[in-house]
Amino acid sequence: MDAKDTVLEIMNKQGKPLSAGQIAEISNLDRKQVDKAMKTLKEEKLIVSPKRCYWEPKK
Description:
Structural class: alpha+beta
Distance between the termini: 22 Å
Number of domains: 1
Pfam family, one: WHD_TBPIP
CATH architecture: Orthogonal Bundle
Number of helices: 3
Organism: Prosthecochloris marina
Helix content: 55-70%
Protein name: MarR family transcriptional regulator
CATH class: Mainly Alpha
Radius of gyration: 10 Å
Domain Homologous-pairing protein 2 winged helix: 2-49
Largest sheet: 2 strands, antiparallel
Shape: globular
InterPro entries: Hop2_WH_dom, WH-like_DNA-bd_sf, WH_DNA-bd_sf
Number of strands: 2
CATH superfamily: Winged helix-like DNA-binding domain superfamily/Winged helix DNA-binding domain
């Protein structure tokens, strides 16, 4: 599983908006990997930001 899938899976399991730092802590991925995965997910419009610096899967 690549970082993008891991990030999306964690967001779905948590059920609340998360910051990149929280995702990195939960997943044990490097923060740079999380940032890169989130950038891709944003471009693909798979995640949205309900408040600044927090992200959740698009419903």
